[in-house]
């Protein structure tokens, strides 16, 4: 499994940037996102870091090590939710394989975790930030 479509709201809820694997709706500013390099070019470093942090903290999946011959854009296999694994793999690829989601989870000041609920259709993590 891999990430095929991603929406971000960089400034306001009304301002959506769409990073699409296959541009189907031209009204939402499609940007080709078939590889991590196109996603990196569409986002600044702060936005990319926040996205990757959100993926790491709102996930319980673990990525398996890359197999021989895998490139940075080869989807990684995951233990746990395959959707969460695809998001972790995407975040790892966006950081050229240097994304330590386990360390990020360990060092985050997590205040509360709301587990995934089929009623809410989401998982939430509340963290404290310095300052």
TrEMBL record:
Coiled-coil region: none
Gene Ontology molecular functions: nucleotide binding; P-type calcium transporter activity
Membrane topology classification: Multi-pass membrane protein
PANTHER family named among the record's database cross-references: CALCIUM-TRANSPORTING ATPASE, CATION TRANSPORTING ATPASE
Subcellular compartments: Endomembrane system
Primary residence: membrane
InterPro entries assigned to the protein according to its UniProt record, in alphabetical order: ATPase_P-typ_cyto_dom_N (IPR023299)
GO cellular component annotations of the record: endomembrane system; plasma membrane
Origin: domain of life: Eukaryota
Taxonomic source organism: Phytophthora lilii
Name of the protein in question: Unnamed protein product
Keyword tags: Magnesium
A Pfam family that the UniProt record links to this protein: Cation_ATPase
């Amino acid at each position: 499994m891999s990430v095929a479509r991603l929406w971000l709201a960089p400034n306001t809820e009304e301002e959506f940037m769409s990073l699409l694997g296959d541009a189907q709706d031209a009204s939402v500013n499609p940007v080709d996102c078939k590889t991590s390099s196109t996603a990196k070019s569409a986002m600044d470093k702060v936005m990319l870091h926040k996205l990757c942090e959100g993926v790491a903290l709102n996930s319980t999946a673990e990525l398996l090590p890359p197999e021989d011959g895998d490139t940075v854009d080869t989807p990684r296999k995951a233990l746990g939710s395959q959707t969460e694994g695809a998001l972790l793999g995407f975040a790892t690829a966006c950081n050229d394989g240097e994304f330590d989601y386990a360390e990020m989870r360990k060092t985050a000041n997590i205040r509360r975790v709301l587990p995934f609920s089929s009623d809410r259709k989401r998982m939430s993590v509340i963290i404290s930030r310095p300052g």
